[in-house]
Structures are given as structure tokens and as C-alpha cells.
Records
---
Amino acid sequence: MNQKSSKAHEWLRNLQANGYRATNTRRAVVETLANSQHALSPLEIYEICRSQHKRMGLVTVYRTVEKLEELGLVQRVHQPSGCQAFISAAEGHQHLLICQSCGKVTFFNGENEAMESLMKKVSLQSGYQIESHWLQLFGQCANCRDQT
Amino acid sequence: MNQKSSKAHEWLRNLQANGYRATNTRRAVVETLANSQHALSPLEIYEICRSQHKRMGLVTVYRTVEKLEELGLVQRVHQPSGCQAFISAAEGHQHLLICQSCGKVTFFNGENEAMESLMKKVSLQSGYQIESHWLQLFGQCANCRDQT
DNA sequence: TTTTATGCAAAGTATTTGCACGGGA
DNA sequence: TCCCGTGCAAATACTTTGCATAAAA
């Protein structure tokens, strides 16, 4: 069993532990998202899954993604081109790095002194009590850089 | 003339300089957005403007906001609750700090060594060439903290 | 006068909901 | 068996487009 499918299994177990059932269609959505290095929209997930489950409905994708998000297993990705896509949730204090050419998503560790001190500084200057932050980087991945 | 309305005038001048006309309805949208400390959705802008221009259509708001965004005068704000709202564009390397209670938006300067070194580090580790970053903080503003 | 902007209505997308049937546990 | 999950269709929300009229320059 490779690392990819173990993530899918873990998500399915998590769903079941929360009273949700492991159905075939749900399994397809979970595997698609768990194995993807790209953020996928409900429609994209639907099209990928439909190659295996002809009868699958787009609604099922929406409902499954909703549950995965609720359990913190996937997260919505915000991009200039739109905010409908989802990807595996970052673990801990990680953030996203997105390739503008191929869409590949990489996680990086954002829990560091630099961020901490910036937030402390902003907190003092603004009077806000800072509770959370969104940090996302955009660029070109190594592959796409080479192809130029 | 206060600072608020001068921003609205500046935007109108900018629109005219780019071949767009300064109409009454457009003026209303511009003033609403230029004077707001909160991110507003097209529908919210529409409802505010309609108190003065009964005949105004929601479409006009969409079309005006589109032009303001195109000229870099306003920017879209992404939030957990949705991504339809707009606010004055940040000037230079500034980022948003949003109050989770009242929605007030404050800008802070994000152009600093901390961010630079973080991006350099991530670039080395990931192999990505980083082109832009998106940072946003969420918290409680001074007013909302006091009211607890 | 000339050209852009407007409102209305209609058309497109994206997403959610109601419901009877089907399939997991 | 029991109850959740499913697909379908319809409803809702958000945004864009076509067009005849109104208004800015």
C-alpha cells in the first residue's frame, strides 16, 4: 500500500468515525482529492470520478467535499482565477505555494520567528488581537521554470 | 473637503483619465467604496447607493466595481465567509488585517525583512521561483475587544 | 452630436435543497 | 432492518450579456 492510498484510507476511516458511511462514490471523491497535487474544483473532481462511476452526480461531490472540509481534511484554495478549488488540508502551521503555470501545490512551514514577530508588531501598531493568518505564495515550480 | 471625499474625487478623475465617464450612479458607487472601512459586496454597495438613487441597478455596481478593480483602485477581499467583497486597494506592499467581529479592515505594511527572508528560504527549499505573496490577518479590533 | 452608461430582462454559472429510491452497516 | 447517501430535478444565488433608452462630453 503506497502513501497515497493510505491517506485516502485515513480519510475514509475519519469519515466513518464521525458517523458518515464509506460508499463507493464517496470513496472515489476521497481518492481523487487525497491523491491530487493540484487544487480541484467540484466540477473537476466530478469529471475525474465519473470515469469510474458513470452514474455519479455532481451533487455528491459537493456533499462529500463539504464533509471533508468540516472534518478539516481538505481546505479551499483561493486564487486570482477563483476560489472553488480544494486540496488536502495543511497539517499544523503550513501554508501553500502554488505554481502559476501548472497549478501544482506545495506546502511549506510557516511557523517561524519571522511570522511571529511580524504579527506581534502588527498587533501592537493596530491594536488588533490577531487570531489567525492566511499566507500563500505564488510562483513557478522547478519543472515549469526549466521548460521556459 | 475631507480626506474621504478627496479619495472619491481622485478615483473619479482616474476613471475619466481612462476614458470612463463620471456619472451620478458611478459617483455613488465610488463614494460608497472610497469611504468604507469595511469590505462591501456588490449587493451591499447596491443597497447603500439605492437610498440615494432609487432607479439604480445592481448591474451598474458590478460594472463600476469591475472598472475600479481594473484600474487598481479597489481589490477583492477573500474571507472564510466568501470572496465577493471589495475594498480600497492597498498602496504598495500592504496587507489586510480584518476584524472578525465588525469586519473593519486595516492595512499594515508587509514589506519587511522577515517576509523577504521567509520567501528566500521557501524558494531554496522548494525550488519554486516566487513571484507574489498573499498575506492576510484576522483578529479582533480594539473596539470589539473592549466590548467583551 | 457622438459615444458611453444605464436599467431591465434574460441568460449563464455555481451551489443548495426536496424527495423517492438504493445501498451501507 | 434501519438509516444514511444517492441521483435527479428544481430552486436559489451570483454574475454576465443583449438591447433600447438616457445621459455625459
Note: Residues 33 and 69 of chain B are 11 Å apart (CA to CA).
---
Amino acid sequence: MKKKNRISSKDVAREAGVSQATVSYVLNNVEHVKIRPETRQAVLDAVKKLNYCPSHIARGMKLNRSMSVGVITDRSVTNYNFMKTLEGIKDGLSRYNYTINLIFSKQEENFDAELMDYYNANRLDGFIFAFAMLEDRTHDVLRTNGVPYVIIDSYASGRGGHEVVTDHLSHLPELFALFKKKGAEKMAYVGPQVRHRADPRPLAFKEAVELYGQQDYGCHFCPFNDDQIRNMIQNLLRSPNRPEGIIAGTPRFGFHTLKTAAELGLKVPGDLLVASLGTSAFHGLCNPGMTAVELPLYDMGVTGADVLVGLMNEKHMEGIITLPSELVLRESL
Amino acid sequence: MKKKNRISSKDVAREAGVSQATVSYVLNNVEHVKIRPETRQAVLDAVKKLNYCPSHIARGMKLNRSMSVGVITDRSVTNYNFMKTLEGIKDGLSRYNYTINLIFSKQEENFDAELMDYYNANRLDGFIFAFAMLEDRTHDVLRTNGVPYVIIDSYASGRGGHEVVTDHLSHLPELFALFKKKGAEKMAYVGPQVRHRADPRPLAFKEAVELYGQQDYGCHFCPFNDDQIRNMIQNLLRSPNRPEGIIAGTPRFGFHTLKTAAELGLKVPGDLLVASLGTSAFHGLCNPGMTAVELPLYDMGVTGADVLVGLMNEKHMEGIITLPSELVLRESL
DNA sequence: TTGAAAGCGCTAACAC
DNA sequence: GTGTTAGCGCTTTCAA
């Protein structure tokens, strides 16, 4: 199983009886260089005959661009948000012949340094951060080094830079109206603890609930850990003053609500109504199906790719792009 | 935002007052070249001072290896099996300083040709196929061209080549014993239609069920489509002779079983016992929790990477490596 | 122990 | 219209 010698443009040139430059001109359709049709054809024939396949590597080296970008998240790769977005990014990039040079790195100690090393070592052309919580200093490093990058997340970080986000929180009033219509008076929010920056979900919940004139509500937070989530929700549902409607800040909180309710003998949607913020592959599969405000993850990926490509080509790009979410009704509400 | 000129080994050489060759010797720890300690130190200092970061690209070009491999699946990227495995592949490869040059391509028309083009264009060093159904001719193309590759899947294809698989079907007898112990006499299998090759699941089910002396069982297949799955399972559970225990060929079939049972007023695990083959992020989150034979997906990825690296270094590698699955008990059985 | 120089495969400025 | 040539950043043979 020895290494084959791969065909180079020199081979094609020899075969076609032209120079290497001509091969390059033909294959790249260079604007201001006119090639005689028969020469062009000779090159094309040679390419086909030899089954020539230009080396991206060499090309990238010459042009000082690799046509590949890094994608980064601080979650598990198996996180649904990330995977779905990645799919969009991939499709978006491939339209411009860009490639993903995947990284899924947790935020390590010297993350910024590693980021730049990776960027340099692989001659990346840019970065997409999908559901990664960026520190201020990371922004600084990227900007200082003139690295094109785009952030994809649920909501804007407000730190400048280019971001693709969604308007899912604007569906809260609509969601509340639905809860009310279905008879839930006492509402509660359960969701993850705020992490690095102001999480707009609790505030949005408060505003929405007050808009509907309810005073008797609660916002409950806990770390993103199954046991603690279960615990918190059990306490909530066992309390004498338990809510009739629950909005979960993430799908996982929603699933735990469903599961806990069943264990306590509460019927959903009979005794309790539930809706969740965010997208999951399981919303239609769980029992009962989960009503949710779903994020346009795939589109966010595609759009992120578009923006990054624009940036890499030194075009001016809009700072924050907001894509519409959608309230999807299922059995839980 | 103009392109910075990146530091090259030439810059380091100049800074350290040595030649470019010496920089290379030092950084690569070349065996049979002795460098004076002070020279070495000078180089190292210059590297640190300039924050030099060698170009993988240029190195790959010179060595005719890119230190990167392609990873391929025929599923959606958002497939849990694939992503979890990918995580393992990534970690495995990075131990050898290999990089993933991700592709997730559906089996298109001229898949083989594209595969080789991609291989050549990006100077890949090898391929890993994770949950991709390979045609015979793809095997042929890869072998003819001397491309190192490894297949990761649930069960061996039996087509030769190097494969990393798991023994999950060997847990069926154990699973049946459990069903019997919990009181399920009538068993049934529900799962996806066989696709490109012999799916060992139905046969393994039959053998296992017969081992336990039950004659009255059924194997039910349908396309991997939510509506059809629901339909099939509804019919099964409504039949007068309905099974008391169901083994689902994939997690999705398991979730639909749970959901359908609930809708028909059947209690799990009271009226019906359920277990599924395969891994999912929702097994612990669904209601009730799903007992399942879980695949060592991450480890399969790591092992696949190990095998491929061996192959790329022209070592002899074992043909088929089987990793142990694990029966994880939850509430559904 | 170190350096000079060639060359991996490509592109592009310039020459003809 | 097409060819010559230099050079992207690296490794490695050969010479010193």
C-alpha cells in the first residue's frame, strides 16, 4: 500500500503541451487573460485524461488563505443546538467553497492563546462561535489580530462584533396568552442559572407575566445538572401553592418538568401546562409532546456562514442579525 | 482589518541568528542531528519572543501529508450516534496531532469520485466512515488507490477492511431473562427496515427469543419515518394479542413505543415493558426512563482513530475490533 | 554542529 | 495568448 504520486499541474501542462501557468489560467478562469479555445480545450482534455485534482493545500499556501474556518462551541458537540447549527454552517460555507476545520473546544485555561495558535498553524480564514460564551479578552485578541469572526447564539451579547441571534423571547406574550386561555393562572419559570452575562430570559418572563397582570409567580434557577434540576422541580410541584403553568428556559428543564409531573401523578396538560424555550430533537417524541418556542438553528448556521464569508472578503456586514423563532404547538400546552 | 503577515521560520532564524534549517532541526527534534544547547536555546527563545507558530499547511505540503483525515457518515450530522463518535474520533486523533477535515456527505451519485477528489484536493491522509453504509465499489476504489480507512458501525459488515464495532446484540439473552423475570411472556421486536445489508438484529432477536422457549412472538419492521413507526406500534399495541414486552431496534422506535403506550392508556412498566437497542441523549430524560443496551460510542471513535493512525503509519492492524456494550437499567423494564 | 539550496504544487507579475 | 520565473513556509540532502 505505497503512497501514489499524485498528479500535479505540471503533469497536466506537459500532457497538454502548454506551460503550468496556462493550466492555472484555464482552471481558474482568470478574467483578464485570454486563452485560445483550442489551448483551453487541450488543457481540459489533459485534466480529464490524467484525472487531475488541484491541491487546495498548495493553492492556499500561495494565496495565504486556506479556505477553511474554525467552528467553536463551549458545549458538548452532541448538544442539539450546536449540531443543528453546525449543519447550517457547513451547508452555508460549502456554497462558497469554504470548508470547516472543526474544533469543539471547551474554554480551557489559555483558550485565547490556543485559539490563535490554531488559527495560525492551520492558516484559518476565520472563526464561527456557535453557542460559545466569549470572554471579553477573547474578543480583544481576535480584533487585535484582525481575525474575522461571527457569533451565533440565542441572544445578542451586546459586545459589538458580528452576531446572528433569534427573537425567541418576543414570543413570550403570545405564550402567556395561550397559557391564560387554557386556564393557567399561576405561572412559573424554571431555567438555568445565569452564567457569564445577563441572561435575558428571567427579565423577559417577568415583563411578560406582569403584562398579563399576574403578581403571584416565581422564577426558579439552578445549575444545569440533572439531579439539581429534578430536585428544584419536585419542590416546586409539591408546594401547596404550585404553579399551573410552567415555562422552561431550556428543553432539558422542560423534559424534567414533564417527567417529574408524571411521577407526582400530575397530568399534563390536565393538571399542569408546560412549554419550553428552545429546540430539541425530542420535543415531538416525548410524552406528551412539548409545546415550544423553537429556534431557527439551521438558518442561523447558514446566515452565520454568509456573514463570515462577507467579512473574510472584507465586505461591510450588518452587526446583529436577528432571525425569527416559531411557537410550535404540541400536547403539553 | 488587514491581513497580518504571519511569522515564519525564516523570521525565527533571523532573530536567533541561525539558519532556517536549524530552526527546523530544533523544533522537530530531529534524531541524528546534534544541536549545541546554546543554539537550541537561542532558537527556542526566538520562537517564544516572536510567538512563532509553524504552518501545518507548509509542513504538510513538504511532507506530502496533511496530518488530517476525512470523517464521513451517511446520516444527518445531528445524529447522536455520529456526533458522539465524532467526539471520540477527534480526541483520539488529536493525541497523534492529527486533525479532522470534516465531511458529512450523503451518498450521492458519484460518491466514490468525489471521495477521491476530496482526498486528493486536501491531501488527506485517510478516512473514517462512521455509521456510513459503504458500497462494495467504494471499498474497491479506496483499496485500489491505497487509501487508509476505518469503518465504525454497530456491527461488522463482513467485507474485510478495518472495522470498529460493538457486541450489543450479545446482550439480548440477558435482556430476555430480565423481561421474563419481570413477567413479560409475549415479546415483540420493532425496528427499522433492513437497508443495504443483512441487519443482524431480527435474527439475533429470534435466536434469543427461541432460546427462552417462546414461540408466540413477532418481528415488526417499517421505514424510519415517525408516522409509519407510530402507526405500526399503534396496531401492535391495539391487537388483542398484544405483546407484554417490546424490544426496540433503535431509540426512536423505543420512544414511539413509550408515547403510543401512554396514549392507549397502557402503563409502562405496569402493563408493558420496553427496552431499546442503542444510545441516545434522551434515555434518561424520557418518561419513563428507557432501559437500553448502550453503545460505547465515544470509545469506538477513539479506537477508530487509533486504528487509522496505525494504518497511516503502515503498521499492521487487527481487522475487526469489538468493543463492549452495556445494559443500562432504567424504569421502562 | 550548522548552513545553503532545492523543491513540494500552486499563482501572478512580467516578459515576449 | 502564452511562457518564464519567483516565491508562499517548510524539510532535508549535501556540503562545509
Note: The two ends of chain B are 60 Å apart (CA to CA).
